[in-house]
Give the backbone structure.
Amino acid sequence: QVEAPEVLQASSPIRRWVHKLVSNRRFEVATAMLIMANAVVIGIQADWTMLNQGTPQPHSFEVLEHLFKIVFTLELLVHIIDEGYKFYALKNRNLAWNCFDTFVVASSWVEDIMSLMMDKSANVSALRGMRIVRLVRILRVVRVMRFFKELRAMVQGIIASLRPLVWCLILLLLVMFTFGILILQIAQQKMLDAPEEDYEELFTAFGGIMRTVYTLYNTITGGMDWGDAAELLIRIHPIMGLIFSLYIAFAVLCVLNIVTGVFVENANQITGGDTDNMVLEEINARQKIQNEMRIIFMRAAGQFGMPGDKAVELNQGQFVDFAQDPVVQAWFRKHGLDIEHEASTELFRLIDSDQDGSVTVEEFVSGCSKFIGNARRLDITRLRNEHTAMRQQVSQLATLMMRRAALCRTPE
């Protein structure tokens, strides 16, 4: 979320400092490291509890838990102060993560309240609630994905694949259910025709529709060797072995390959979604540069004693003095522009679109945006067309002047 510069200028110094802190990459890295450290501590605590049943936990676990809880609460408050009411706004693209962070932090404090209730009374319902709340601490590990794009992409891929997975399972279930009914009917007829034979192994694998579907599922997913199941069916009738082989070929070579193709296509769609995210990041980066331009321009207006609003204007002399500021020159060099005294005068003439001898903040932002970055094909094509049109006009003008000169040389 990129705050407008006028909002940052009008906000309190504390909020400006908080915004600078949150925008720093080191703050995100430190938060991610703390989340991973908390996940490691939770894992060590669970391992120690399992290996030392009935033994009270060391106080170091409790101290670390309270420390992480306080740090994550402060981190949440910092983000709330930075974004203000927009933190829970529906238009905020981080709303889901913000609500998740709030839930995790609130659950940690609810755990303390439940602990106090446990100390005062041995209520069974409070004990169950305490166990549920403690399970929520595991969700803190999920917050690590917020800071790593690769993890977010993988999780988004898994979530997006849930719907195709359900339909694939339904398709497999229909195939196994249909083939299972066929096996049961033939097996039942075999038992009626030869009741004296031993059908214990056959009944173990195909004794009912649920058990039959389970066996068919194991044969195509590696739970059991499909050859063992085929041997049981061949005892009923050799044709059953052939039919079962056709089922394996259809389920493994056809259905599962189609399922793989569906997931690959879904992954391609997710890649397209990542492209949209890249476009969004590019737009945010451009918006950030424009906001920096506005802040720099307003800083220049403050140096010349002008009010910090959008109506402020700088004349050519003020703009040249403003461009000689080392901070301004460093910012321009950062974006590929080397501004000297003569260059700043030429830059003023190029930025002053209405040629009124002054530059507004919007003219400054719009003009500088055209000079930052590499030349685009559209710009080169526009210059080429303008050059061609100018050559045609010059050629027509030269032809006209030659005709006029010829007429002047003609004797009366």
